[in-house]
Amino acid sequence: MKHSNRLMTPSRRSVLIQGLAIGAGAFAGCAMSVTPRISHKNPNEAPIAGTRSGKVKGFIDNDIYGFKGIPYGGDTSKRRFMAPVPPNPWTGVRETLAFGPRAPQRALARPTTAQAADTIYPVSEDCLYLNVWTPGLRDSAKRPVMVYIHGGGYSALSANSNVYDGVRLCRRGDVVVVTLNHRLNAFGYLYLAELGGPEFADSGNVGQLDLILALQWVRDNIEEFGGDPKRVLIFGESGGGAKNACLMAMPGAMGLFQRASSSSGETVTASKPETATARARQVLAALQLTPDRINEIKAVPMEQLITASSASGYYGPVVDGKSLPRHPFHPDATPISAHIPFMVGTMHDEARVLVGRGNPAAFDLTWETLPAMLRRYSEKMGDLDIEKDVIAMYRRLYPDATASDVLFRATTDSRDWRPALVEIERRAALPKGSAPTYSYQVDWWSPVDNGKWRAHHALDIPFLFDNVTYSNNSTGTSTDAYWMAEQISETYISFARSGNPNNPRIPHWPAYDLKDRATMCFDKASRVVNDPRSEERKLFSRIPYENPGT
Question: Would the pTM of this model clear 0.90, i.e. be above it?
């Protein structure tokens, strides 16, 4: 297959998995490049753009204008646990040449060279910054706008990685690309509304409210950057996809984006207030604060609150009756976003990283040791009999599979693919006339480590951005890897442009319905398959689904 010309010199970057639920890309790593690469244009022609808060000065990278670290919100240390506000205006021209700080989060336990790109940027409560890449300024081109929301669950990581660099997408599709940081973990999702006063009313969802403020910034400023505020796609992988699914149910987000996509991340259910309150009590106890002293949490040093945040095993949005009035996809798909085209994707072998990373024994199972290992990861299998229902089905369907293959298939299908399918099915059940939903899975095996990881979680990040060059330890750099990036990036560009993912690089792709269940299977030779993994779907659909931790 023919692939596009390679536009950039390789530089190593990393996104990594932090726990089973985070997994934003253990393999999307390459070393870091902080200094923008200046194209043949005169370096003195540094671009200047006007925003509602002030002027910003960027750089030129391969004929694309770039701006890193534009403030879209004020310093949240002054509004801890409160909804964000726009930044204070500035005078003169602000340089925007480097990423802004990451949101407060725990340090990585064992930093590696591959993680350096994400860790070099400091953490700060002043973290509401975004980055823009565009082919043109003030040219009334009305380009589609692709807003990427980073993974890491609701707890970790950032957009500060060159794997999310927007230059190639801009050049390939004549689009505008935006990435951003926002509040995470206890700073973004600690629900104190039932324990504190009115100033804590938004506390369980301020991380999501940051995203809404960023989208409001896009609405108000993106025309200056050549973008169309009426053609905005939100897309994201892992935790980023989950955040997008949640935005689909938030009234404050409506009108700020016109297409949405979720890859390997779902929010079928958000936390119930009582569950979130119980977790908040755990954090307060770790801080040695009683509920009657809750106001003191606003003055706790950032590092101390980061440490105490580990007392809660889960963070995520809360059905607070205010900014999030209901679960996004339970008991049905939220009707307020029924008019928005939705594209949902998964990796065929998500769990080979999510379960297998850090667990070498998972790759050396026998049929005798498989049942005990599978029970460790069977929380989404309900009352199914592990041996008679689950293992027996996979051995019948895939007679050549090893015991380890069955572990990874069963955990992928029950824990990772299943919630995506719930979202897709419930969208497909919306009334006639609702916007289409498109389903895809990536089947292509990464050749890294002799194919050990197959189509693993986060494999598609460099494909979404057409940035294989930055992720060779995930994808390799073969012609096939570049062809996968060409297919998938063109698909996302087409979806951003029209709300329809069809394009000349792929076969015709129908919208999903409950009769045919058409699913695009991305591979070296991509194809549409009706009702893939049908028997697995039927088996695990017998178990009611709720997101872990909610």
Answer: yes
Q: Residue 441 contacts by C-beta under 8 Å, 6 or more apart in sequence?
A: 345, 346, 347, 348, 417, 455, 519, 520, 521, 522, 532
- 350 catalytic, yes or no? yes
pLDDT tens digits for the chain (550 residues)? 444 433 333 222 222 233 333 344 444 443 333 344 545 556 568 999 999 999 999 999 999 999 999 999 999 999 999 999 999 999 999 999 999 999 999 986 544 444 455 556 799 999 999 999 999 999 999 999 999 999 999 999 999 999 999 999 999 999 999 999 999 999 999 999 999 989 999 999 999 999 999 999 999 999 999 999 999 999 999 999 999 999 999 999 999 999 999 999 999 999 999 999 999 999 999 999 999 999 999 999 999 999 999 999 899 999 999 999 999 999 999 999 999 999 999 999 999 999 999 999 999 999 999 999 999 999 999 999 999 999 999 999 999 999 999 999 999 999 999 999 999 999 999 999 999 999 999 999 999 999 999 999 999 999 999 999 998 889 999 999 999 999 999 999 999 999 999 999 999 999 999 999 999 999 999 999 999 999 999 999 999 999 999 9
**Amino acid identity, residue 165?**
D
Burial (CB < 10 A; 0-12, 13-18, 19+), residue 91, is: exposed
Which of 14, 414, 457, 489 is an active site residue?
457
Q: Report the DSSP beta bridge partners of residue 529.
A: 519
- The answer to whether 77 is a known catalytic residue is no
Q: In the numeric block, which tokens belong to residue 126?
A: 């002043």
Cα–Cα distance, 369 to 371 (Å, whole number)? 6
User: How far is residue 331's CA from residue 309's CA, in Å, rounded to a whole number?
Assistant: 30
Question: Residues 477, 483, 486, 487: is their CA dihedral positive or negative?
Answer: negative
Catalytic residue among 350, 425, 490, 536: 350
Token readout for 296 is 């003191």
DSSP letters of 286-351? HTT--GGGGGGGGGS-HHHHHHHGGGSS----B--SSS--S-SSSSS--GGGTTS-EEEEEETTTH
Q: What CA dihedral angle connects 423, 312, 78 and 53, to 10 degrees? A: -30
How many of the other CB atoms lie within 10 Å of CB of 277?
18
Given the residues 155, 238, 471, 494, the one annotated as active site: 238
Annotated active-site residue 457? The verdict is: yes
